[in-house]
Amino acid sequence: MNKDLLDTYDWISNSILLPVGGFMMAIFTGYVWGAKHAIAEVNKGHKRFMIGQGWALLIRYVVPVLIFFIIVVGIYDTFFR
Q: Which of 8, 57, 70, 74 is a plausible cystine mate for 15, CB 3.0–4.6 Å?
């Protein structure tokens, strides 16, 4: 890992902080706030959110797993390649 300071900051923000932020938002939306509340918020003043139930399943189960995989691959690619 032969990088200068700005490359290190770039790697930390792009490979760690952004995916961790997305992971935390998915966990918060799916489990803490609740997908039903999020769908209700999207529906305010707009047409019905047509993919609400499928989106709720994705935000609770699929998205956190995929983002965790992205974090692991980013770390693996940096330190073990």
A: 74
Q: Which domain holds residue 38?
A: 5-79
In sequence order, which ranges of 17-61 are alpha helices (DSSP H)?
18-27, 35-43, 52-57
77 HSE (CA, 13 A, CB side): 9
Residue 71 CA, chain-centre distance (Å), reads: 10
C-alpha dihedral, 7 to 12 to 14 to 18, nearest 10° = -160
pLDDT at residue 64 greater than cutoff 70: yes
Total tally of structural domains belonging to the chain = 1
pTM for the whole thing? 0.82
Q: Which amino acid is at 72?
A: V
